[in-house]
Amino acid sequence: MSTKLFILCGLVLTTIITVKGAPSSNLPKGFIQCKKSDPKFNECLKDGFQSAIPRLTNDNYEVNGNVLVGPVKGKGKCKLAIDISNAVFNVQFKPVVKNGNTFLDTKNLTLKFVATNLHMQFDRLFNGDKALGDNMNVFLNENWRDILNELQPAIEEVLGMVFKDISQQFVKRIPENEKFLP
Q: Signal as a keyword (predicted)?
């Protein structure tokens, strides 16, 4: 069974980190402020990242390829939503001292996840042929596991890059002592 599908579809992060607030005014609202001395420090960081798993939604797509048993082609609006039950982030930071403050540099971030559902809706498949497009959307959603098995490594790689960029923007602006309690 071969799946060859190239989809360009933007993503919107619905949350960055969604746990109760931090006292520092520099931190984003809802950021988890982990204690470095906490024996569960890694779990705190993992929970923060895991809660930030995005839902892909309402954007443009372009597809031209084969899905499981047949060709699919189209260009238009798409809605994608992935439900993730478990995610494992591997993050490597390097401390960087600037003006007496220690900042972190995100050297590497990888992601592996377990999905419980993937819902896809592509408008204007097959040049807007509604019957073919509706049937393809039903087929895609009924076979989401097979499709995700083929696409998951690419999705994990892209999400890893996105989270690395987000992490880098955050950790390079706020000193370590404001992100983590002693």
A: yes
